[in-house]
Amino acid sequence: MLKPISPDSSIFYIGVDDTTIDLFENQYPVPHGVSYNAYAIRDEKTALLDTVDPRATEQWLEQAAEVLDGTAPDYLVISHMEPDHAGSIQALAERYPEMTLVGSAKALAMLPQFFRNLPRNPTLAVKEGDVLELGTHTLHFVMAPMVHWPEVMVSYESAEKVLFSADAFGKFGALCTDEPWTDEARRYFLNIVGKYGTPVQTLLKKAAKLDIQTICPLHGPVLTGDLAPYLHLYQTWSSYTPEEKGVLVAHASIHGNTAKAAAYLAEQLKALGEKVTVIDLCRCDMAEAVAQAFRYDRMVLAASSYDGGVFLPMEEFLLHLQYKAFQNRTVALVENGSWAPCAAKNMRAVLDTMKQITVLEPTVTIRSAVKPEDEEHLRALAEAVRQEA
Ligand SMILES: Cc1cc2nc3c(=O)[nH]c(=O)nc-3n(C[C@H](O)[C@H](O)[C@H](O)COP(=O)(O)O)c2cc1C
Ligand SMILES: [Fe+2]
Ligand SMILES: [Fe+2]
């Protein structure tokens, strides 16, 4: 069944839902799957925009054939060479050897890296400001280097005012699961594109000059209607600005005492009126922990000491935050140790490598189990965290 992106549109959705994948990029749990989006523009010339992951090639080829209605596509526009979008290029090129492959010079240069026996389709390297006339539709190319990978470009179609935004504005979750956008878009953005805040800011500035009515990303739903909330969240996330006031309490506890301290602290914070999310780093999705850390303006890290260092789930969490350029937040520390507490020193060493992190003093040190005087110190820490709001 043909799926135009709006009732009278000549732009069609030909993407595929993947509900059987467990880990996206072999690391992010996707309990509701993911969609590999692809589009087709039917005009005097026909353009396909991106392909899909090799897991979905056959279904996508069938959908493309239905839109093409027995004709061959004139162009395949390649926004991004990552296999979740470019993985079916070879299959398409073999079917349509006359079709022109359109992409940035860097994207075209990557083609032989991924495909050894690509047919000799014509290619067209495009750069910032180049246009491709399709008839009544015109694609304007906007380079978006490092909005995930260096070869990325987005395309603006001026007749229907559609931005094909590549990985930007994407979301985890197959389209068949109709869930709210923000939570899974946040987890997607901050883990996948989060490190590249500055390039995303550059793209947002370019996008602000365009009259955009619809955003067609490579994952998740096509965005229509009032686009301001989506643009606002992207502005917030890419500038490393906290999305809201609140506290993530993240703990890593070997025998459970540090977890109890974290729960006690969380209760104190709630009693003071704070919005609080508690995450057990030993059994959570790390990507969700990262997303929650970016969401709030403050964070409490509570961890057991471990072999002269910090219990590894906490170390791993901090490493993830460091990789994703975590910055511009206030952090409080709680450590536990039975003979030579050293978790806080090790947590701080990683935090010190990050930009604009304020570590609240004093750190709370617990020896083995939480005692009344520890509760007193935790209450004082909750007050100090509250003062930073
Ligand atoms: C393998 C292992 C290594 C540990 N290393 C240290 C250490 O280097 N320094 C220390 O003070 N305590 C160390 N501990 C004790 C833990 O920090 C202890 O579990 C903690 O004080 C109690 O908090 P918990 O119940 O949250 O684990 C270690 C415990 C284990 C099981
Ligand atoms: Fe990507
Ligand atoms: Fe992607």
Automatic annotation (TrEMBL):
Give the InterPro entries listed for this entry.
Flavodoxin/NO_synth, Flavoprotein-like_sf, Metallo-B-lactamas, ODP_dom, RibonucZ/Hydroxyglut_hydro, Rubredoxin-O_OxRdtase
Q: What SUPFAM superfamilies does UniProt report for this protein, alphabetically?
A: Flavoproteins, Metallo-hydrolase/oxidoreductase
Stored Pfam families? ODP (PF19583)
CDD domains on file: flavodiiron_proteins_MBL-fold
Q: List each copy of the Flavodoxin-like domain by range.
A: 247-386
Domain of life of the source: Bacteria
Instruction: Name the Gene Ontology molecular function terms of this record.
Output: electron transfer activity; FMN binding; metal ion binding; oxidoreductase activity, acting on NAD(P)H
Family assignment?
In the N-terminal section; belongs to the zinc metallo-hydrolase group 3 family.
- Mind telling me what this protein is named? Metallo-beta-lactamase domain protein
